[in-house]
Write a structure and sequence with these properties.
Strand order of the largest sheet: 1-2-3-4-5
Strand content: 15-25%
Structural class: alpha+beta
Radius of gyration: 15 Å
Shape: globular
Largest sheet: 5 strands, mixed
Number of helices: 6
Order of helices and strands: EHHHEEHEHEH
Length: 152
Amino acid sequence: MTSVAFRQAQPADLPAIIALLANDVLGQQREDASSPPNPRYVDAFDAILADRNQLLVVATLNDEVVGTLQLSFIPGMARLGAWRGQIEAVRIAEAHRSSGVGQQMFEWAIAQCKARGCDLVQLTTDKARPDAHRFYERLGFVGSHIGYKLML
């Protein structure tokens, strides 16, 4: 298994992150991979960077971005005031899927959540992603809840 480096995303990573988000059936319907990046992505990137409870991460191999995810650290009242680590927007470059990059990325992300004092790590995943579901279950995640969304 190749060793992957993880770091906070930088502005120069934005095109690669957007390309990863757009590179699947669902992403093709909802992302805009045009160049230059849609200003909405730039605004979102700036907001994430400014929020100490948000971390946009890239996984790199030989300085090439091969994966991304967003970590949100969420304080809460439930579970005796537990903090949660929320993992979202997980993508691995197609050429690196099933190579161990995703597992390394999750191990790193979970370690970040532990370091921030989170009591649990959670994520949502689209029902149309059965391969992702199997992957998350292999990592020990349990499909214990049903999630709902309301598009605005």
